[in-house]
Write a structure and sequence with these properties.
single chain; alpha+beta; GIY-YIG endonuclease; 6 domains; nine-stranded mixed β-sheet; excision nuclease; GIY-YIG_endonuc_sf; GIY-YIG_endonuc
């Protein structure tokens, strides 16, 4: 593996001007292309301490053997050169927004003598016009079938077209007037191309003019007593209107915009684009991409705009296509840092001014929120597909076994996470995954007492000790030394507590099956792998507890959030799994599920404490009246702001009780009206989600 210091250029030789740089591997193949306002500042960042780099960036700089750069005059030139190099070299470490192969489009082969209309999936080709993409192929076929009576263009393959030309008889579509039958000479090439161009104009949004033309022709035919022709035109007009109804009107007439939204996590991002032409959604497409280096939403926007519209412009130049590759407006969730230069570059591609902005209000804002929901849903479905795929799960378990050098694949994985607010209401979760899938019936949650002074590391140790002492007791391995197993932990099905686990008065030898119910005991099975949310201190604490209890057949690792590093006990350096590794993805899912479960339990306890503690001990205020007060005012904050007269109007409360409530709230009890920070994990990251929300 190349050492970055062997090819690092001297700092003084790197210009401070804007430019584009490229990293190459030992074989001379370009593996990454980037641009910078200051080449010196950007390139020096790649040669910092490797331990501080993003895993993907670390992999890139250790794969490369050379870095080169080109100085440019303006940021617009840098954008153009970066796009050209990415297109030319196809670097493996660059994010590529390629055409999605799963979305079908309607293709019109304008490069043929007799253009053909057909459903198509795959990369775009020269001389072909594309409409869409659509969500489903059947939607294209329904629309096409509806429009063929109005625009009877060829839809058959080259073989069918040639065969019917040889036999001199049209196909069925030719007999039912859904094809003009150019194969047998019913129309010449010029007339057939005219039909196809009218069809393309209709799908491009020039619908109002066509509707007016059909209405005028229908009226003229009726006036001339050509009733059969008028009836035909009436049916054609109805087909046009039904096709138009299938395209949802979302914005005012004439609006020409693309609406872009992202959903992302630390390693991946999903992008969704709605193409709005003439105020109607003409197409939708989406991708899920890997993040190459730490990338925020603004940087994702910049990468997307450069690559997507640069590619669209290149296709338009080489194709027999007159439509604009860049719309008048591009609506994005965040503006990139070089928005002005990006706008100038887009305007050059379009040939007129392009607006790049964030929608603030009205219909465009509402549509942007819709696109964002679609991006979030697509991202969630992508994760579920990965999680539900048997092959991917098997590969994940195999990669974990190899990466952590385990004797066997970790068919049962348990993960521990701690949640609290500044050391208060400290709770812990333990989640279980078997064969790569969550076993929610075996989730456990713990209350940690007196944890404020000890910290997260001690809390991790306590949870591990309690969990495995219970395991030893239920399988006959507990000897009775020391304190008996804890009874504070409770089981849960999903997020619903199922009651406390009682400890036996006397430790006895027993199997993992409860003789009374015939079911496995709640802590009877040990995991193959125990994961803790944290780094080296947390891992060492968990390993020390297992060693103390004499458990040697459970592997331990920790997953640190910052760089997604995997830590093993007694190792000074972490294990780095590939960012595209199914094994890393599974560990992240386990860790995130433990974090979600811990936060949910923490919020339940915090909410209960907030609503009850301030009103405890008020004379004459029992549980029923307390509940009535909270239901009437909604929160302690609003209750505190109310007067005695208003409180006394609550059914069941009198003036004296109302004054007692106000006195209790003003005597320095828990200030529940103050803002409370969100719960935090071992790394101190806080969430600002409302109580009851799931996940981070």
């Amino acid at each position: 593996m190349p050492d970055p210091s062997t090819y690092r250029p001297a700092t003084g030789t790197i210009p401070e001007s804007p430019g584009v740089y490229r990293f190459s591997d030992p074989r001379g193949r370009v593996i990454y292309v980037g641009k910078a306002k200051s080449l010196r500042q950007r390139l020096n960042s790649y040669f910092a301490d490797l331990s501080g780099l993003h895993p993907r960036t670390r992999q890139m700089v250790t794969t490369a053997a050379k870095v080169e750069w080109t100085v440019v005059g303006t940021e617009v030139e840098a954008l153009q050169l970066e796009y050209n190099w990415i297109k030319e070299y196809d670097p493996r470490f660059n994010v590529r927004y390629r055409d999605d192969k799963t979305y079908p489009v309607l293709a019109v082969t304008m490069n043929e003598e007799y253009p053909r209309l057909h459903v198509y999936r795959g990369p775009r080709r020269k001389g072909v016009r594309y409409f869409g993409p659509y969500a489903h192929a059947w939607a294209i076929r329904e629309t096409l079938d509806m429009l063929l009576r109005v625009f009877p263009a060829r839809t058959c393959s080259a073989g069918v077209f040639k065969r019917h030309g040889q036999i001199g008889r049209p196909c069925l579509l030719g007999y039912i007037d859904k094809c003009s039958a150019p194969c047998v000479g019913n129309v010449d090439a010029a007339r057939h191309r005219e039909i196809v161009e009218d069809f393309s104009d209709f799908l491009s949004g020039r619908t109002d003019r066509m509707v007016r033309d059909f209405e005028r022709q229908m009226t003229e035919a009726s006036d001339n007593l050509e009733f059969e022709r008028a009836a035909r035109l009436r049916d054609d007009l109805g087909a046009l209107r039904r096709a138009m109804e299938r395209q949802q009107v979302v914005l005012g007439d004439g609006t020409d915009a693309d609406v872009v939204a992202f959903a992302e996590d630390e390693l991946e991002a999903a992008v969704q684009v709605f193409h709005v032409r003439g105020g109607r959604v003409r197409g939708q497409r989406g991708w899920v991409i890997d993040k190459v280096e730490p990338t925020d939403t603004a940087q994702l926007v910049e990468r997307f705009v450069i690559q997507f519209y640069g590619e669209q412009a290149g296709l338009a130049e080489s194709a027999d296509d007159a439509h604009q590759p860049v719309p008048k407006e591009i609506l994005v969730p965040e503006l990139p840092p070089e928005a002005e230069a990006l706008t100038d570059w887009l305007s050059t591609l379009r040939g007129s001014r392009v607006g790049l902005r964030i929608p603030q209000r009205g219909d465009k804002r509402a549509l942007a929120e819709t696109v964002a929901r679609n991006a979030k849903e697509a991202f969630q479905q992508h994760k579920l597909r990965r999680a539900g795929d048997l092959t991917a799960r098997s590969a994940a378990l195999q990669e974990i076994q190899e990466g952590l050098e385990l004797d066997t694949a970790p068919l049962r994985i348990e993960c521990v996470d701690i949640s609290h607010v500044q050391g208060t209401n400290v709770v812990a979760s333990l989640v279980v995954f078997e064969d790569g899938l969550a076993r929610k019936s075996e989730y456990r949650r713990f209350e940690i007492k007196d944890a404020a002074e000890r910290g997260d590391v001690a809390s991790i140790a306590e949870v591990v000790r309690r969990r495995f002492r219970r395991y030893l007791a239920e399988t006959g391995g507990y000897t009775g030394d020391g304190a008996p197993p804890d009874a504070e932990s409770s089981g849960a099905v999903g997020d619903t507590a199922s009651g406390a686990v009682e400890a036996d008065a006397e430790p006895t030898v027993r199997t993992g099956i409860d003789p009374e119910t015939g079911r496995p005991r709640k802590f009877a099975y040990a995991p193959n792998l125990l994961v803790v949310d944290g780094g080296k201190p947390q891992v060492d604490a968990a390993a020390a507890v297992l060693a103390e209890l004499g458990i040697t057949d459970v592997a331990v690792c920790g997953l640190a959030k910052r760089l997604e590093e995997v830590w093993l006990p007694d190792d000074e350096d972490p294990v780095i799994l590939s960012r595209t590794s199914e094994g890393l993805y599974l560990l992240q899912r386990v860790r995130d599920e433990a974090h979600r479960f811990a936060i949910t339990y923490h919020r339940q306890r915090r909410s209960k404490g907030m609503t009850a503690s301030a009103l405890d001990g008020v004379p004459g205020l029992g549980p029923a009246r307390k509940q009535a007060l909270l239901k009437h005012f909604g929160s302690v904050r609003k209750l505190r702001a109310a007067g005695a007269e208003e409180i006394s109007q609550v059914p069941g409360l009198g003036r004296r009780t109302a004054e007692a409530v106000l006195a209790a709230l003003g005597e320095g009890g828990p200030d529940n009206a103050q803002d409370v920070p969100g719960p935090s994990g071992p790394d101190g990251d806080r969430t600002q989600e409302p109580i009851g929300s799931e996940g981070r």
